[in-house]
Write a structure and sequence with these properties.
- There is one protein chain.
- This protein is of the alpha+beta class.
- The chain has a single domain, classed as 2-Layer Sandwich (Metal Transport, Frataxin, Chain A), CATH 3.30.920.
- Helix content is 31%, strand content 29%.
- It has helices at 12-35, 98-110, and strands at residues 42-46, 49-53, 59-65, 70-75, 78-85, 88-91.
- It has a six-stranded antiparallel β-sheet with strand order 1-2-3-4-5-6, covered by helices on one side.
- A hairpin with a 4-residue loop joins strand 3 and strand 4 (70-75).
- The N and C termini lie far apart (35 Å).
């Protein structure tokens, strides 16, 4: 008998749509900060790869990994892999929320508190 409490795996099209929405939300947040004179973070996106460049020259890279249905985040503090479960992206090692990890890494690299919220 199948266990209905197990998360249903994403289809490829669901993964692409959800991952694209996350990347778009990050870009919108960065654009809002730039317009509000909060911080000047440059963002560049090519397909499923989003690069954030901070004033000190450091970068954060968020990359969609379609074959694995994961989001990867590379920052000064390390690399993280996230799977979609229960309506959010969770770190495959620690179980931490994607937006919390991104906010922590960005705050560290920006030298000020930054908060990315989930869409």
């Amino acid at each position: 008998m199948p266990d209905s409490n197990l998360p249903k795996p994403l289809t490829d099209s669901e993964f692409h749509a959800i991952a694209a929405a996350v990347l778009a939300g990050i870009e919108e947040t960065v654009d809002r900060w730039l317009q509000g004179d909060v911080i000047d973070i440059d963002s560049g996106r090519t397909g499923g790869l989003l690069e954030l460049s901070f004033p000190d020259g450091s970068k954060i890279v968020i990359n969609a990994q379609p074959p694995l249905h994961e989001l990867w985040l590379a920052a000064r503090s390390g690399g993280f892999h996230f799977k979609y479960a229960d309506g959010g992206w969770v770190d495959t090692r620690s179980g931490a929320d994607f937006h919390e990890v991104l906010s922590g890494c960005a705050s560290e690299q920006a030298g000020q508190v930054l908060h990315f919220g989930s869409a």
